[in-house]
């Protein structure tokens, strides 16, 4: 586990009394302690919201995802293992995954809307062919991403959809920077191969 995390370009110490306190609050939350949960929310919600907002950009969606994250924390705090990691990392990783899931969901919904819209068009309009080609390329990339092992897919998704640097990704997923670089290099190489053979 790394000694510090990078959030919105700032290094935040992971070790120390506050980190121990977050872990303790999670354990108490798992036992149904509402006061501990309220304290956890007060302590972490600004950081969690900043992370989500960085991924989603949209403030209203970020507020929705923030509520989803804390609902998930309340429901699954028992899954936190204090001996396996820091509480803050556990919460921020959960928040980041939720935000990335929202981005993926929005992209899928957008692609569905385009497909439905294209079927409803009776007359070709200038520029439609170009938009269709872009959407087809987007679907090819999505399918190609689906063929990658989860660690490679996660690193590439965080970089290209989340806008994170390799150092930030390493902090978020709790892996060494060299491992993230290897995952991205291998994943991009495999993506190029997949894109080259797909029709």
From TrEMBL:
Stretches assigned to the RNA polymerase sigma-70 region domain: 40-107
Signal peptide span: none
Pfam family, one: Sigma70_r2
Gene3D superfamilies: 1.10.1740.10, Winged helix-like DNA-binding domain superfamily/Winged helix DNA-binding domain (1.10.10.10)
Domain RNA polymerase sigma factor 70 region 4 type positions: 139-191
Keyword vocabulary terms for this entry: Sigma factor, Transcription, Transcription regulation
InterPro entries according to UniProt: RNA_pol_sigma-70-like, RNA_pol_sigma-70_dom, RNA_pol_sigma70_r2, RNA_pol_sigma70_r4_t2, RNA_pol_sigma_r2, RNA_pol_sigma_r3/r4-like, WH-like_DNA-bd_sf
CDD domains reported for this sequence: Sigma70_r4 (cd06171)
Superkingdom of origin: Bacteria
Family: Belongs to the sigma-70 factor family. ECF subfamily.
Full protein name: ECF RNA polymerase sigma factor SigK
């Amino acid at each position: 586990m790394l000694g510090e995390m990078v959030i919105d370009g700032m290094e935040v110490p992971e070790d120390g009394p506050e980190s121990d306190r977050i872990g303790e609050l999670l354990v108490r939350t798992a036992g149904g302690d509402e006061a501990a949960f309220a304290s956890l929310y007060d302590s972490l919600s600004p950081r969690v919201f900043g992370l989500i907002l960085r991924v989603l950009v949209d403030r209203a969606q970020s507020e929705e995802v923030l509520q989803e994250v804390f609902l998930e924390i309340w429901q699954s705090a028992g899954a936190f293992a204090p001996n396996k990691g820091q509480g803050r990392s556990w919460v921020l990783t959960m928040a980041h995954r939720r935000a990335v899931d929202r981005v993926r969901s929005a992209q899928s919904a957008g692609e569905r809307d385009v497909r439905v819209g294209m079927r409803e068009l009776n007359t070709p309009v200038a520029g439609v062919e170009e938009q269709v080609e872009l959407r087809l390329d987007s679907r090819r990339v999505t399918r190609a991403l689906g063929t990658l092992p989860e660690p490679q897919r996660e690193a590439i998704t965080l970089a290209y959809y989340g806008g994170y640097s390799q150092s930030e990704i390493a902090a978020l997923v709790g892996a060494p920077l060299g491992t993230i670089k290897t995952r991205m290099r291998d994943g991009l190489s495999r993506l190029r191969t997949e894109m080259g053979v797909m029709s």
